[in-house]
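Tip: read the tokens left to right.
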């Protein structure tokens, strides 16, 4: 049981550190435009690949402007060039724009995407796994030189945009800021933005990043996809009882007794609460049956034996008052009172057979007592407490040793609130500590240590992962925090 308990503690503490990092990362920066608004850590194409270009091309020093210097007399006189890197797979949409500076003699300009093996003496779309939209006839090309009708022709002064909506595996084009529709479907990466030139004096300028703003905003498509998804989700029927049950279960699970009462009072605790409790009890009964059956199928590993040996206790409601009081003590900066209450109301926690979970609880509360002494500026008492009490918990876990080091590091900073370990003084950290103790109590009483809502959220993450995998691992990686906050 020890490894399970300590992992539960470490996971909870890491959640607090993550909250602090997220807050720091959210500080305002300069306004971003173009593709920078989509994802800051994606490696985006930024210039032309001058190491592999077709014949008859002259590339400017900025590596974004290219001119055709040939005569375009034969099919193999094409000059094509790709971007320096491929389209990233972890963005919802990729997009670039090409301005036709000079359409030349015939404006045989091809714009699109090609794979790494593409022959740069051919137009994008003529070769396998390449896609192109051509200016002289307005046709789209894929895998051959025949082409299909797609959009209007384009020439000098026109700006053609080419993009990939990765989550739907679609290539689209725009002309002078107007969306032309989907050109190709079932597109797979890796692909490189590519332009091809094939008549005298043609010249184009590529804008890879849109730092000065694109003529067309590609994020509009992403917003449409997200809105369609949102509407589809909202069309799924969900009863008031189900919603009520999720919220009540969450509040009960974490020991928010007063909030639970207020919630029931506001929502009409009568019929809904009775139906919710009946539904919840039925669900719990089914889960216990499934758990017992699953345990029979598992090998008799150490973790299974330890979980099976956890004592069976009364239902969750009987522990709500205790867990609520414990949380109140911890949030009220009285961790020592929390330990006294546990010893009084839950003495089995301190029995030898539950030594691991007892050590978790006592060590966690001891750290909070030290933090409290530091916050009260009782440095002498804090040092003495560390020497007399905290030292007792050194060496019981590598993860916990690191936490003790962080706690003791508060002594090194004159201004703790501006120190690298200032997160230990936050409400988020204190709340997470209360969660650790709450989970420990639930585990000891044979109850689930994860709420129904969190189980559903984990299922959501798994489903999103499966959807992205089925899409060739293309598109934006689902971020639960962003989804919940509407980022």
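Filled-in amino acids:
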């Amino acid at each position: 049981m020890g490894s399970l308990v300590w992992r539960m503690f470490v996971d909870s503490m890491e959640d607090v550190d993550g909250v602090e990092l997220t807050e720091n990362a959210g500080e305002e920066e300069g306004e971003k435009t173009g593709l920078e608004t989509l994802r800051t850590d994606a490696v985006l194409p930024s210039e032309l690949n001058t190491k592999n270009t077709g014949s008859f091309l002259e590339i400017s020093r900025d590596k974004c402007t290219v001119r055709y210097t040939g005569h375009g007399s034969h099919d193999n006189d094409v000059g094509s060039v790709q971007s320096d890197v491929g389209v990233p797979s972890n963005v919802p949409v990729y997009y670039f724009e090409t301005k036709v500076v000079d359409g030349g003699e015939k404006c045989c300009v091809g714009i699109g995407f090609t794979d790494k093996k593409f022959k740069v003496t051919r137009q994008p779309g003529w070769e396998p796994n390449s896609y192109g939209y051509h200016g002289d006839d307005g046709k789209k090309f894929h895998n051959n030189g025949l082409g299909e009708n797609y959009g209007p022709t384009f020439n000098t002064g026109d700006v053609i945009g080419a993009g990939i909506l990765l989550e739907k595996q679609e290539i689209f084009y725009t002309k002078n800021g107007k969306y032309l529709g989907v050109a190709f479907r079932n597109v797979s990466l890796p692909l490189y933005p590519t332009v091809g030139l094939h008549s005298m004096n043609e010249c184009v300028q590529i804008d890879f990043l849109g730092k000065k703003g694109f003529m067309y905003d590609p994020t509009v498509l992403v917003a449409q996809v997200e809105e369609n998804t949102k509407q589809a989700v909202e069309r799924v029927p969900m009863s008031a009882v189900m919603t009520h049950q999720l919220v009540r279960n969450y509040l009960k699970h974490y020991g928010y007794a007063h909030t639970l009462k207020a919630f029931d009072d506001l929502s009409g605790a009568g019929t809904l609460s009775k139906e919710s409790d009946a539904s919840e009890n039925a669900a719990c009964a089914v889960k216990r049956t499934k758990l017992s059956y699953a345990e029979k199928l598992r090998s008799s590993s150490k973790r299974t034996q330890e979980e099976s040996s956890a004592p069976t206790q009364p239902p969750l409601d009987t522990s709500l008052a205790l867990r609520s009081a414990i949380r109140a003590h911890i949030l009220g900066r009285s961790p020592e009172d929390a330990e006294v209450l546990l010893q009084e109301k839950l003495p089995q926690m301190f029995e030898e057979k539950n030594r691991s979970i007892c050590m978790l609880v006592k060590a966690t509360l001891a750290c909070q007592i030290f933090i409290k002494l530091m916050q009260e500026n009782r440095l002498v008492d804090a040092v003495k407490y560390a020497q007399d009490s905290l030292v007792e918990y050194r060496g019981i876990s590598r993860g916990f040793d690191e936490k003790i080091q962080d706690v003791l590091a508060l002594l090194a900073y004159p201004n703790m609130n501006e120190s690298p370990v200032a997160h230990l003084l936050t409400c988020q950290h204190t709340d997470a500590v209360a969660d650790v103790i709450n989970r420990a109590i639930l585990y000891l009483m044979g109850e689930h240590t994860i709420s129904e809502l969190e189980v559903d959220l984990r299922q959501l993450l798994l489903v999103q992962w499966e959807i992205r995998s089925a899409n060739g691992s293309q598109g934006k990686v689902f971020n639960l925090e962003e989804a919940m906050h509407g980022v």
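The chain has a mean pLDDT of 81. The chain has 14 helices and 14 strands.
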